[in-house]
Every structure is written in C-alpha cells, then in structure tokens.
Amino acid sequence: MRIEIIHEIASSLRNNKLRTALTGFAVSWGIFLLIALLGAGNGLMNSFLGNVESFISQSVSVNGWRTSKPYNGYKEGRLIELDQKDLQYTEDPRWQGIIQNVSTRTGSSSASLTLNGKSVNGWITGVQPDYLVQEKIKLAAGRFINRADVQERRKVIVITTSQAKELVGEQPEAILGQWVKAGDISYRVVGVYHTDERDFRRATPIPFSTYKGIYDHSDKIARITFSLNGPQTLEEHKAFEEAYKSELKRLHDIAPDDNMGIWIRNGYTSNLQMNKGAHILRVALWILSLLTLVSGIVGVSNIMLITVKERTHEFGIRKAIGATPGAILRLIIAESVAITAFFGYMGMFLGMIACQIMDKTVGQHAVDIGIEKIQMLVNPSVGLDVALEATLLLIVAGSLAGAIPAWKAAKVKPIEALRAE
Amino acid sequence: MLIELKDINKTYDNGQPLHVLKGIDLQIDRGEFVSIMGASGSGKSTLLNILGILDNYDTGTYYLDGKLIKDLTERQAADYRNRMIGFIFQSFNLISFKTAVENVELPLYYQGVPRKKRHEMAMEYLEKLGLTPWAAHFPNEMSGGQKQRVAIARALITHPQIILADEPTGALDSKTSVEVMQLLKKLNQEEGITIIVVTHESGVANETDKIIHIKDGIIGQIEENIHHDAWGGPRMK
C-alpha cells in the first residue's frame, strides 16, 4: 500500500501543477528564510565571538582608581596606587588554588624609539613574562621577555610589527638583535609581535625590573593580573571579587561600600556574559525562523483547504467506489507531506547556497570600525544537525498543514461530495 | 431476495421538513434487470442513493444480500459499496486526471489489490467493452459513450452484487443511449448481473424487464415488461 499511495500522490500532483507550485513556493520560501537567517546569524555570532576572543583574555586584572567616598580622614577622589603589599596579599596562601599565575606590570612612559635616524612612537611598559599569555600577544618573530631578563634587569624590548616596519622596512624580523634608542637608553630588540591592526595596542614591553630601575623607583604597581580557578557562575565571580577587594580596601583606607578605588576587570565574567548573549541571540533567531516557517505552514494549509474544496467531487467519486474516510485522510496528509518535504528540501538547498554566497561576498569583507577592522560574517552556515532538525520539522509541519483539510475531506458525506461541482 | 426494503422513510430537513420517501416496500431478486421510473422530485434518486449506501434512511429496514444496512460506520459503508455495489452515473464521474485504465483500477486499489494484478484486470474489462485502444486516454479525450463504457468497466471490476445506474443515458445522444442500454441488457442476460436503472425516460425503462413506477415518495404500479422479451428487440421511442 505504501508504494500505491506514492503513485496516487504523484498523479494528483502532476495534474495540479499550478497549485503544487504555489504550495511549494510557500514552503520553499519559509525554509529558505529559516536557513539563510540561521546561517547569517551563525556567521554574525562567529564573527562576534572571534573578534572578541582576540582581545578578551581569560584573566582578572586589578587596577588602582580614584575613590568616590571620603573615609578615615581621607577625602574622596584620592588616586589609589597598588604596591608591593597588594602583591603579597594577592599571593597570600589564603588564595591558594584560586589565584594563579600572578603577574604585574608598571605604568607606561611615552618614548620615541630611534634606529639609524628613523624614529617611531612607543609606550614603554615594564612587564612580567606572563604578560604574553594574559594579553594574548602573538609573536611574529623572536621571543618575549623571560624570567632571566627580569632577574638580570636586562635592557631588552619587544616592539610591534608596524613599529619594526617603520624602523627597518618590510622585513620586521631584521630588527631582531638591533639596539633602539629610547631617550638616553638603548634597548636590544628581542621580539616583534602582531598587533592585528589594533593600533591602540602600542605597548612596547621591557622587563618589569628594568623599568623600575630606570623610570620609576617606587614600589608602585600599575596592575596586578592573575588567572582564576574555582568560581564558575557569575554569582561566584561576583562573590570572589567582593572578598578579594575587601582586604585591598582595608589596606588602602577605602570605604568598604566604595565601588571605586579598586577596579577589577574580569575576563571570565565577560566571557560568561558573552556566551549568555550569544545564547539569547541564537534562541531569538530560532524563534524568528520558526515564525517564518509557521507562515509557510499556514500557506500550505490554506492551499490544501482550497484544494480539498476543489476536489470534493473527486473525493465523492472515490468514496462511492469504496474509499474509506481513513484512505482519504491518508491521501491528503501524504500529499501535504510530499509537497512540504520536497519543496522544503529545495528551500533548504537554496538557503545553503545563499549562505555560501554570503560567505563569498559579505564574509570576505572586513569593516573598519575605527580602532580596528572586523569581519562582518565568519563562516555563515548551518550544520548537518540543523538540516536534519529542519527535515523532521518539515514532515511534522506538512502533516499539521494537511490535517485540518484532510479531516474536512474525510468527514464529508459521499452523497454531498458527489453533488458538489 | 437480494434486496428487501420494508417501509423506508426519508425526510430531508432543509429549513422545512420534506418527506421524500413515504414508506417504500420493494423486493428485487438476484439477476433482475429493473428500472425505477418517476418524474423529478418523485424520490427516485433518493431511493437509489439509499440502495447504494450513499445516503441513510430514517425508519424501516433495508437488507442487501441478507445484511441489514442500517447505522453503518463510514468505514463499513465504504467497504460494502466497494464489494457489493457498482455505480454508473449520468455524468460518468470519472476522475479527470486519471487515464481510462487508472479509473477502472481505482475500486481495486481500495481493496488493496496489487498494482500489477489490478492493471491486468482493468485491461481485461476494457477489452471486454472494446476500449483497449483508449486505455491510456484521459476522460476528456473520449466521447460520452466511451466514457460511460469506462464507467461501466469500473462498476463491473469488483464483481458487485448489483449495478446501480443513475440516468445512465442522460448525457448521451439517442444512438449512444441505445448502445449503452443494450450493453447493460447483455451484461444482465449473459452474466446474470442484477441491474437497477433509475430514469425518467420511458424509452430507457422499456429496455428493462420490470418497471417500478415511483410517485411522490411511494411505489405505484410495478410493470412486468414482457413486450421486449416477446418481441425480441429494443423498443425505443
């Protein structure tokens, strides 16, 4: 009987070409929009996450800031500067297992770097070796500041590729081993790093100890950076930040309820929030796509209703010669499923082609947003799982669309159906 | 008795009640060739629809081949129609997007007969009715007489107990009408098929063995039509 019904459907669809085409278009369009929308959404998300990933690091940085409340005889607006005792506190055994890879950096001094009469602007900053990982620096050539550099206060420097190009021309690695002058002091260039066209990242790192010896003799620290192990949820991160900050506030005479004074940038929570945002975007896209599909289903249902009305006489004949209501029901639902499945597949195919076209056009296009260039769409496509889900959805949708018209057709009395013209 | 009707009543209620059949008693035996004749509005079509289990009746009893036909589910009714009754309609009622052979096959499709088998059977019946060259044609490519012969083949293919023909010549010219009636007569005489023809034309009724006159919802005179047997030929008007 299964093959029989396929023959029945085929002949009925063949002989109602315009109707079949119209119904098919409604479904194709719905699925096409669903796939294209989801594809574009995925592309947008990939681009968003990809762009963000390159500069949001999995680390926590702590900075001093201006207080906003008077406390303990101090006026508000006092600038807090971190120092050695804050570092000791951070490395305290009480945080063991939670705070890891503690690293520090100094403030920056603007300097003109010169080599063979050419000069370029830079920001000399004293850093620890961990700076490489925490700031997600990608080396183009050479090496980064290492422990020995810090211990021996070596006069070494790492500069950006664009600075290197300005000093030595197109081959930035040619600068490795050369001595550049910054004011009265000469530094040997040991590494060159990519800046991803992000020109705001002009820091030119030197060893922490070297900086302290030359530019700043105090025990001040501009920033403490560390990685975190333990807190998982947003709430846990918040709780950790509060606990960590409370002692720093005590050390610096900051009001316990002052939200300023100590400023924490938590890369983990940024990521969590971003994932949450991405999830919401994804859900919103699905809802939007499903609503589009619903309009397609309503279209099919509508056309099937008209079809059933048009074919009432035919169903009357079928009933007179022995078709049961079930047989009529099956015929219409099977027709509906056949139309939705076939044309849905076509829509899906076209939607995937549209994703490919988006990838080849908009996807290749980087948009300059001032401080950097970003790619609008990265790999806009939908996975096989989504395609399978959509197929399943189509079959369900087809049955749903056919259900009401089929029920109507099955219910009508043969004598009334035969009278209909 | 193949068909036994006792005190069949049927009232339509479209706004105001219309009593169409007012106590019909009728018996038709196996192998009879009967016509039900009456003017339009006499209730003859309603009677035919009840006989064909296309419509139900309000009171009375209807036995078809010993089975009480009353309060059937749609499913049962469809099954009885399929196995016991063959229909021939005035307007042929062929499915326009199916070829002649596909139309003839359709009742067997609803019996679940395999495709190949039913195609063979349908071709056999088309051959019997001289329609082999037209097997692959669609209804709109055939003449009225050809269409009615396809419909007759479709009615015969399930070996029904009775053939119900509702004004079978109503849409045909007089020459074709004679041919169709002779075909029905031949089927009755040679194969012993019970045939009931509903008509308002006395010429058509005269071709049958028994004429049942119906007027205002009751059976009037039942005429044994001995003439055409005695004279051995058709007596069209």
Can you describe what's shown?
- The complex is a heterodimer of chains A (421) and B (237).
- Chain A folds into two domains: 201 residues, no CATH class; 208 residues, no CATH class.
- Helices cover 53% and strands 19% of the residues of chain A.
- Chain A has 13 helices and 14 strands.
- In chain A, α2 runs antiparallel to α9 and α3 packs antiparallel against α8.
- By secondary structure, chain B is of the alpha/beta class.
- In chain B, 35% of the residues lie in helices and 28% in strands.
- Chain B is built from eight helices and ten strands.
- A six-stranded mixed sheet of chain B has the order 6-7-8-3-9-10. Chain B has a four-stranded antiparallel sheet with strand order 2-1-4-5, with helices on one face.
- Chain B has one domain: P-loop containing nucleotide triphosphate hydrolases (Rossmann fold, 3-Layer(aba) Sandwich).
- At the A-B interface, α1, α10, α11 and α13 of A face α2 and α3 of B.
Give the secondary structure arrangement, pairings included:
The complex is a heterodimer of chains A (421) and B (237).
Chain A: H1 2-14, H2 17-53, E1 60-64, E2 82-83, H3 84-90, E3 99-115, E4 118-127, H4 131-134, E5 139-142, H5 147-151, E6 156-160, H6 161-168, E7 179-182, E8 185-193, E9 203-207, H7 208-214, E10 220-221, E11 223-228, H8 234-251, E12 262-266, H9 267-310, H10 312-320, H11 325-360, E13 366-368, E14 373-375, H12 384-411, H13 414-419
Parallel strand pairs in A: 4-9, 6-8
Antiparallel strand pairs in A: 1-11, 1-12, 2-10, 3-4, 3-7, 3-11, 5-8, 7-8, 13-14
Helix pairs in contact in A: 1-11, 2-9, 2-11, 3-8, 9-12, 11-12
Chain B: E1 3-14, E2 16-28, E3 33-37, H1 44-51, E4 59-64, E5 67-68, H2 74-84, E6 85-88, H3 100-109, H4 115-128, H5 144-156, E7 162-166, H6 174-191, E8 194-199, H7 202-205, E9 210-215, E10 218-224, H8 227-231
Parallel strand pairs in B: 3-8, 3-9, 6-7, 7-8
Antiparallel strand pairs in B: 1-2, 1-4, 4-5, 9-10
